[in-house]
Amino acid sequence: MNSLRRRLTRDVLAISAALLGGSLAALYFAARSELQEQFDAALRAKALAVGAVVGEDEGRTHLEAGADLLPGPVGAPPQDFYEAWDANGASLARSPSLGTADLPAFAGSLVQPGFWNLKLPNGQAGRAIGVSYPARPENGERGPRRPRSEIRLVVASSREDFDEELAALLGIAGACGVLLLGATLWTVPRVLRRGLAPLDRLGEQVAQIDADNLSARFPATGLPQELEPICGRLNALVARLEVSLARERQFSADLAHELRTPLAELRSLAECTLKWPETRDAATDRETLAIARQMETLVASMLSLARGEHGRLTARREPIAVDALAREVWQQFAARAEAHGLRAVLTLGPATAAADPTLLRSIFANLFDNAVDHAPAGAVIDLTVEAGPSGVTVRVANPADNLAPADLEKLFDRFWRKESARSDGQHSGLGLPLARMFATAMGWKLTAALDGERRLVFTLAGPADG
């Protein structure tokens, strides 16, 4: 299971353990280096003390036989050893604690002495310093100067105390690391659980939202800063879902309303035919056919809308004389317009555009049908086609005193009518939604507006040919 909390816990613990281990290791090595420097400084001081005493005068050391320059505690095993050689490798002085053993005759200079680890004659681990310096004659020198020979001196000390301190330091560092790691293991999950609690509460609130309570909203305040944009987007999403579901519910109700009337008529005609078969005439069959065609048109329009909403409405593009097509489609409505007492003013300039002829014809038919059926008697319908640098523009305008600006966007809603009770069997409320969907499929744009003369103006804009 891909758990965010588990991943965060694992990552934080891994990073904490790495940082803790690195910090303790750095602290240990820094302390070890400091202790090593102190140990080497003590060795150097011992070497300087021994070197100040060990000298040579005509091949003889001034150190008395058996003297120990680095005596340890009485009764304790020796901890320090030294040995000095002349330039020829002859032993000038040595620690009595060496017995018959010898120290390695490695040496550096006084400025840069040599340091190394070794095993002492008593079997303990030790560390040594080696220096070389010119011999110093005892009691001064008189007469002609002669070349001064070089003395090599090695001083070694036991590392037991040093190693014990390092072991203790390592133990303390390890114990601190274990304690801190344990505290981290105990603390991090609880801190993350507390920090992610708002996210858990948000998840519970999301789980409680369903189709029956889409009006619920997530709190926009009192949340961590990181969750505020998420809640804002969730609220916007729920609002869109609420609107969409309300539209679908309204669509279902409108669809049931639209189908109820023709279905009731069909049932009535069928019952009358069965009850009084002798009264059946051709008018009954023609009425039945008209009702069936009305329902077929309604279903076809719904299918076209569904295809368009799911992106399955395809449109081909070819050059079309828009002015000629508009004039041709208007001729189909001219008689109806004259019967309603309407007058049409056509201003059709030459214009060619890339469009689907079938879809463009359907758009014109829906716009002209809307204008003829909703314009008041004696009104003027203006139809304009013009071409410009950016493309072709078609305008259909008619008086609409009963519309308000708030009604404009509803014109393209399915089954919407200004008079909701109106259902004459001729208008399903799908024409304008289909017209806009067809325009969108072709890459055109269909909008509606009210001008200063309270006229409803539909504007269809599309790209020029090519």
Can you put this structure into words, describing what you see?
By secondary structure, the protein is an alpha+beta fold. The protein has 3 domains: about 5-135 and about 150-165, 2-Layer Sandwich (Beta-Lactamase); about 230-310, Helix Hairpins (Orthogonal Bundle), CATH 1.10.287; about 320-460, Histidine kinase-like ATPase, C-terminal domain (Heat Shock Protein 90), CATH 3.30.565. Helix content is about 45%, strand content about 20%. The chain is built from 8 helices and 14 strands. The longest helix is centred in the N-terminal third of the chain and has 50 residues, at about 5-55. The relative contact order is 0.07.
SSE arrangement:
Layout: H1 4-53, E1 56-57, E2 60-61, E3 80-85, E4 91-94, E5 114-119, E6 125-134, E7 150-158, H2 160-195, H3 197-207, H4 228-275, H5 282-309, E8 318-321, H6 322-339, E9 343-348, E10 352-355, H7 357-374, E11 380-388, E12 391-399, H8 431-442, E13 445-450, E14 455-462
Parallel strand pairs: 9-11
Antiparallel strand pairs: 1-2, 3-4, 3-7, 5-6, 6-7, 8-10, 11-12, 12-14, 13-14
Helix pairs in contact: 1-2, 4-5, 5-8, 6-7, 7-8
